[in-house]
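Lay summary

Proteins are chains of building blocks that fold into shapes. Our project writes down both the chain and a compact code for its shape. Here are two examples, one after the other.
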Amino acid sequence: MSTVSSPLGSDTPWTEVHKLLLPAYWETLVMVIIVMTMVVLIGGAIGVLLFNTSNRGLFAHKRFNQILSWFVNMGRSLPFLVLMAAIIPFTKYITGTTIGIKAAVVPMVIAGVPFFARLVENALRDLPREVNAVGLVSCGSIWQIIVHVQLSEALSSIIAGITLNTISMIEYSAIAGTIGAGGIGYLAVVYGYQRFDHNIMISTIIILIVTIQMVQWIGDRLVRLTAR
């Protein structure tokens, strides 16, 4: 990240703010993209399993569903800051470090996967019961029914879930700045809070608000385009 030195308690000149803000914003985007890719793939698969092992699913298995549901609930039970601190040894074991983007990705994925899994499960539960029946009557395989019937019919709800989860991950990336993960959160903590730099603090708040509004707008547009 580019640095602009400023004495404690003095504000970074507005003409210099972009030198700090743009690299930090890029780090946040990279962090969120990596995390959301893993969250959608892993959480989506778990959500499909949760639904299809329930009594409405294609391969109902009550015991497996209860165990998987328990793990998902456990993953959603801790506030992100507590989770991030609690798994520091695990994060260091996986990434070899407790600071930087790599260290932030681990707790963000662990927090995001169970949340998205529930969103996918709920999206599939909202489908009419006849949807699975149509797939079965058409002699589709389990994989074909999941992909071309369940996920296809629930696409708009899943996109809404991705939008909601992405916004959460942007918020989590800001919290991850407290452990030196980089990005907008780190900039806000180190410069805006610790150095009392009002210009940096105002800039980070504005760019986070604008980013979340853009994500929500794009998500809403995609939901409307894919609604059936």
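And here is the second example, written the same way.
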Amino acid sequence: MQKYRPTANDTGIPVLKIKELGQGKVDEHSDQCSENIDSQYKVDNGDVIFSWSGTLMVKIWCGGECGLNQHLFKVTSEKYPKWFYYFWTLHHLKKFIHIAQDKAVTMGHIKRSELEKSEVLIPSNKKLIEIDKIISPLLAKIIALQTECRNLTALRDTLLPKLMSGEVEINKINN
């Protein structure tokens, strides 16, 4: 994202790095990139992100719009539902971590060839559709709740100092 810094006419968006992925949010210390980057490099709530270098992890991002930094993959599929590729990536994570630790000189990482060796069992279309009817609504609810939690946390962090300083007052409520 260093090549895509925000310009004077561009407010910018935070850059999603391994640190932000691990903490589940961006903050005032997060780097910024142009909001005019290609959509394949944009991360939105609900995207599956795989950190393949350094700290290996798989997360469903719910921290708002960001730019995708190096060492992270946005895992997608046009053929399979999100839960399917999320859980299979998560299933292989322990193996990926072991491979990265064995090859680590300074920072362990996974090569694309290791990803290609990972096997995935694919159910029949009928079974996939049956399972999807159950899992997709649950995953959508999880994403919505995590996003709402992030928004409520930001609201609390904005209002609490103003309440404590007296800048904002709560009117007394009559019983």
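What can we say about the second shape? The first helix runs from residue 18 to 23.
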